[in-house]
């Protein structure tokens, strides 16, 4: 499937990376929310 379409691999990698970053930020945000926003 991916053979011959390296551009698609890059796009998928970018999407996966973006999802991971968003998930990490969401988890951190939730932790801060429940711990009283350590600022």
Can you describe this structure?
Helix content is 77%, strand content 0%. The chain is mainly alpha-helical and 39 residues long. The longest helix has 30 residues, at 6-35. The model has no long low-confidence stretch (mean pLDDT 81).
Q: Which residue ranges are poorly predicted, with pLDDT under 50 across at least 5 consecutive positions?
A: none
State mean pLDDT (0 to 100 scale): 81
Q: Approximately what portion of the residues adopt beta-strand conformation?
A: under 5%
**Distance between the first and last residues' Cα:** 47 Å
The total count of helices amounts to: 1
Largest sheet entry: none
Salient structural properties:
39 residues; mainly alpha; rod-shaped
Describe, in short, the structure shown:
The chain has one helix at residues 6-35. The protein is mainly α and 39 residues long.
List the helices and strands and how they pair.
Blueprint: H1 6-35
């Amino acid at each position: 499937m991916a053979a011959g379409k390296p551009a698609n691999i890059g796009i998928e990698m970018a999407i996966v990376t973006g999802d991971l970053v968003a998930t990490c930020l969401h988890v951190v945000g939730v932790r801060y929310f429940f711990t009283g926003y350590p600022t």
